[in-house]
Structure formats: structure tokens, C-alpha cells
């Protein structure tokens, strides 16, 4: 792959040089040919004058072209991707670099962590990915203002950079959440090191801003807890959630803490299958009017009986449908079934009113 891309780029450069040469030589050659044909009429002096003017014009055109490139650079580098050549201007390159860094702290962002952290994962060298949450940041911003909050984030970012060794990286994920990709010899050693980092952050904030703070952290260990950056980051955040809910300073990822999320994904998948097979049933619950002459109203209630876990409450599967992007399918199926039942009743000369929540 690398050889092909390099060969393609080299061929492109040679092509550009060839075209530039043709652009210069061809006009001069045509002029010389025309002057040769007009030799009898011009004489030697006229021929030299015309030739000098042609060369000067060509040189001036080249200078103007180079100035135009200097003020409006058309390209700085070329990248061959799947046989297509894409040129990037310096402005595009600067924008790409700025997008890979957090604007406030100048640390790499999540995308840069996923991209640049991946080459650091080597099977023979265990790594620790930790996600640290500055739990106090929201209250700090409300009490002291956003400007001081931003200053605190910047100072913490510099502090985290100072704790890094060669081959390690820090990133700001979002809000008061930072990630550290560290070298690790053992889980215990990594746990102690991260605890020391948290204590250093709290001591620094107390010294700089005069307030007591606390941080929470979730840890995922490579390769035990994942073989790629995306999985490690996801599991480190699960461990962070466990740390926050249990009010512990630092928690190492455990598959047991992931059970709720796995169950949620399984239920969402099973709900999608149930919708495909019309696995939901509708109950029509009469709503008795207070007035005796009032119309009969039937409230439509959707029910789902899971083949393994039995009856699932509407509150549960509706919430899963909303989070899993299935709520529109669920709504359409309930309305379609309810209207179909209403049509069957009316064919039997039964005219109830229905209410769908």
C-alpha cells in the first residue's frame, strides 16, 4: 500500500514537471518556427528582437504564476487514496490539525486519542487507559464563573501533561473529562499511579483556587479489557460510571458492571425482532364515563411478553424503543393494529371510541 501510494505520488510529480516543461518549450518552439518562416521579411535583427521578446514574455509569465501560487497556494501536499489524488491547501491542513485538538486546553481530543493512541497499543506492552472526571467542575463554574472554570481546566491539562512519560498521551474528551493512556506493568501499579495523579490534581486545585475537590476515575487495562482504543475508552467510561455511583475515587473495569448495558442492548435487539414479527399484543381497557349517556371509550394498551423474561412493562420497552431508535416503528405498529381492530368492530356494527397514548 505504501509503495503504491509513493509511486503514484512520484508519477504525479513527474507528470507535473513534464507539463510545466511543455508549457514553456512549446510556445517558444512555435514562435521560432514562425520566425524561421518569416526570415526573408524580418532579417537577422528583426528575428533576434522577436525571439528576445518571446523569451522575456515567457519568463514574466512564469514569475507571475509563481507569485499567484505564493499568495493563493493551490496545494501543499498530495495524498493518494484508492487511486484518486487529493490536494490539501495549507488552510485545510491547519483546520484538520485544529480539529484534532481541544480548543481550550490544546490537548488532543477524543478523535485524536482514538487515532494516535492506536499505534501505542502493542500486545507485548500492557497499557492503561483511564478516564478522569472533574466532578466538581459544574458547581465550580456556577460559583466562580466560566472564566475561572476554563482557567482550572487549562491548569489541570498542563498538570496532566507533566505526569506523562515517553510513549504516553493525555486527551480532553468533553467537559471536565480527561483521558490518560499510560504505560503499565501491572494493574496494581497503574492503580497506585492514577491515584497519585488524582491526589495531585486535587492538591493543585486547592492551592490555585482555594477549594476542596474530588475526582473520579475509571480504568481499563490493555489487553485484558479490550484490544482497541474504542473498546478501552468505552469500558473505562463504564468503570467511571461505577466510580461515580459508588462514590469511589478509582474503579477498574469489571464485566459485572457492564451487565446492565449488555441487558439493555439485548432487550433493544429483541424488541426489534418482536416488531418485525408483530410480537406485541394490544389490550383494550374500557374507560367508564362518569355520565351514564357518555360514549364507550377503550384505551389501547401495548403489551410485550418476552420469550425468556416474561411480561415486560410498557415503561421499560417504550424507554428502550426511544433509546434504540425504534419508537416510530412501535408507534406505527400500535396505531395500525388498533385501527385494524376498530375496523373489524365496525363491520360487526360495534362503534366504540378508542384512545391511544
Question: Overall pLDDT, averaged?
Answer: 76
| Shape label | flat
Number of strands: 11
Spatial separation of the terminal alpha carbons: 57 Å
**Percent helix among the residues?**
55-70%
Helix-strand pattern: HHEEHHEHHEEHEHEHEEEHHE
What order do the strands of the largest sheet run in, or round the barrel if closed? 4-5-3-6-7
Main sheet attributes: strand count, strand direction, barrel closure: 5 strands, mixed
Question: What does this 3D model show about the protein?
Answer:
- By secondary structure, the chain is an alpha+beta fold.
- It starts with a helix and ends with a strand.
- The protein is built from eleven helices and eleven strands.
- The strands form three sheets. It has a five-stranded mixed sheet with strand order 4-5-3-6-7, sandwiched between helices.
